Amino acid sequence: MTDNGSRGLVVRGVSKRFGATQALDHIDLDVRPGEVVALLGENGAGKSTLSNVIAGTFPSDTGDMTWNGEPYAPGSPGEAIGRGIGLIHQEMRLLPDLSVAENVFVGRLLQRGGRIDRAEMNRRASEQLTRLGLDIPPTRLVRTLRVAEQQQVEIAKALTLNARLLILDEPTAALGSDETDHLFERIEALKGEGMAFIYISHRLEEITRICDRIVVMRDGQRVASHDTAHVPVAQLVEEMVGRSIERIFPDTGAPRERAVLRVDGLTAADGTFQDVSFDVHEGEILGIAGIVGAGRTELVRAVAGVDPVKAGTVAVEGDVLRLRGPRDAIEAGVVLVPEDRKNQGAVLDLSIGDNVALPNLDRVAKRGWLTPQGVASAAGAAITEMGIKGRPSQLVRTLSGGNQQKVVIAKWLARRPKVVILDEPTRGIDVGARAAIYEVIADLARSGMAVVVVSSDLDEVLGLSHRVLVLSRGRLRGVLAGAEATDTAVMRLATA
């Protein structure tokens, strides 16, 4: 790559403190036009803080930045995007009941003659969607789009603002392999136009595919950098966590004979999956694999009583459930840890204790009275059992992603369920915390619980599961066990 001199983003000596926490400590970073720089580190390493400083969410305490040779110190995200730098968050920030075009131009709706010029908005939005290879009408409501499509709407929004540097925060966390490939194709095309990217991901195997250079952070400091993306994963992990960690899945024990959960002929009310049957035994981990859109999440939501079904039955220990809502499943011993822990799994602005108590009031409230002592006691037990790094009174929002996930799991384990369903249990969680979640899942199986794991990470599914159920386009394509459960075999069924 040619040297662009002062072109691009130059960050020098940037620090940021929040109370007693030194989130950033004299960070240097360079991002040149037409390149993708990977920003790696565990949760809490400072990646998001640095991204927010660059994107204008809040100012740094020390240091300075330049952008294309000019001083750069944005006072707001709007000022940053006005200068050509945008941040695409892991959690989508679109308005679901507005159209694609309205979302692209929200806050700056185009007008003509004093009226909103929807035709021009649709034309310009469509132009950027085509640039991204996304074939959807700009008039379509955002809530009807898949996650991958919503993500590209976010990118299209930035492109209409003439962004020249995009910060992508965990862009593939909710994507399958095909949609990830498409995103990478779009990034490569935009690189060719001179656009630059800061790429944040916990999926280290992606880095060599899309990134040009790597910067590693730990505890708010820049601890390593590489002028190539072809760095062994083991080395990157060691740099990130300060110790050597291999991705070794724990021993999950052997399943037992008795079936705990039996699903027969289940068909979704909205048609997202049809005629799916399977069972899960005591001490068994059943993995559910398939590309995005296969119906994995919809299937487990139906089993947990969240979404209605058109046909079929769900039985626990031989008793067919009448599922009118999640309460019926919970009372029967079936609990779901959802894929979106921040919006569906935890109440971020409540404490660990309150989160644990909420679904367990019948157990925590003695003789109908809920006391601070009772909440603290339940939370203390959960913290000890799950190894949560936090205090009962600590707000869940202040915890790392891995500890937030442990809180969500803990609140359901307090009910001593018979079946635990985990949808994307390590989404957005760093490699160090993943090992702890894997151990929790293995402990559940070894204790005799029936466990269902849905994951877009194929290695995760294969590494944890005794058997793997494969869905494709809403239909069961096969169940693989033992030596036949390979990545090749799964993908062959998943693309059938």
From TrEMBL:
Q: Does the keyword Mitochondrion apply?
A: no
Q: What is its main location?
A: membrane
Bilayer topology: Peripheral membrane protein
Provide the GO MF annotations for this entry. ATP binding; ATP hydrolysis activity
Q: Which domain of life is it from?
A: Bacteria
Family matches, as Gene3D superfamilies: P-loop containing nucleotide triphosphate hydrolases
Subcellular location(s) per record: Cell membrane
Q: Residues in domain ABC transporter? A: 9-244, 255-493
Q: Mind telling me what this protein is named?
A: Sugar ABC transporter ATP-binding protein
Source species = Actinomadura rudentiformis
